[in-house]
User: Fold this.
Amino acid sequence: MLAVPGMASLLGVSLLARAAITADVMVLTLYVVLKLDLSYAAAGGVAAALTTGLALGGPLLGRMIDRRGLRAVMLVTVAAQAAFWLAVPVLPYGPLLAAALAAGLLMVPAQPVTRQAIAAMTTEGQRRPAFALESVQGELSYIVGPPLVILCVAQTSPGAVAWGVGAAIVAGGLGIALLDPPLRGADEAAAGTEERPRRRAWLGPRMIAVLVMAFGTTMLLGGTDLAIVAVLEDAGQVSWAAGVVAVYGVTSVVGGLVYGGLSRTLPTWLLLALLGLATLPAGLAPDGPWLCAAVAVPGLLVAPTLSTVADAVSRLAPAGVRGEATGLQSSALAAGFALGTPFVGAAVDLSVPAGGFVAAGAAGLAAAVTGRLLSRRPRAGTPLGDAPRTAGSRAAGSRGGGSRGASEVSR
Assistant:
């Protein structure tokens, strides 16, 4: 896949931006707690504002890309991020809260743009391994970004690290703008001159099924992070948390690489259901080493599940609205992460620490079942086997209703 013209440079520049974006909540949390000397609840408010902006801004930016082109949107968002991160070290809490919401709305759309470009730069047979590689990139961004921020904050001030994160986001966004990757395939170029399809023509049961499964996947992932900490705290081994999370991320990378090399695919609902089932018993691990082993099994399924979601969105969305569709996917992913932590936290408070894994796994299973049912539901007046088609791409109906559930994650 890296031999595809332009793919290696796109993934390299995108990784820089995505690693910084995955670390933005961490650096803002540390800034509020350490520099402003406020509570973690206050820090959570800033994180929630940023995440809300991300969820609302995804489809809006995607629609702007469809209409105005990639470079114009990238330059606008780069300018907004530069202004926000330069101002962070001097903003008091109230203005920071409002600025975080605006920054989320105008976040550099590195992840959705990468997915659009992959759909345009690859052939039908290349898309599954390409999206698997993109999911691996998302996992690497989470393995590198937040830990690096914590390490840097320990050595310098939170304000300086905020500037560094902002600089990386700006550099990644400018790099993507300079590369200006194609967002439509050669056989889809005419879509830009055709009338924009109505939303109800492509946002049907199958696409909604994919978005539900994307939401469920990240709800499971966000909840699993909290459940790991809760179980280890109960065992008096919180120091193992970093190691367990690292095992979870590394096994996801391995799973994505293996899945991308397979000759056959699995539907998203099945992958998500297996991920949910594998997550349920993880809380039974009595200590850190056993928990490392317990999360390795569901970890192998994370990147494959996320990759099938992106693949399905690219197949179900007509070329002229692919930006808006990938934006909706990003919004579903962000919403899942935002709700997964409080949902699992409530389960832990109401039961036992191991109940966090049960709640996370159950959320994934519920999304898988819902996605399966929706994907089997025919649109009024439309045969079950029909789905939106674009030039050069087949319908995703034969793939279990247009699979895939999160990523990239990003996460």
Summary: The CA atoms of residues 129 and 260 lie 4 Å apart. The mean pLDDT is 82. The chain has two domains: 7-185, 199-380+395-399.
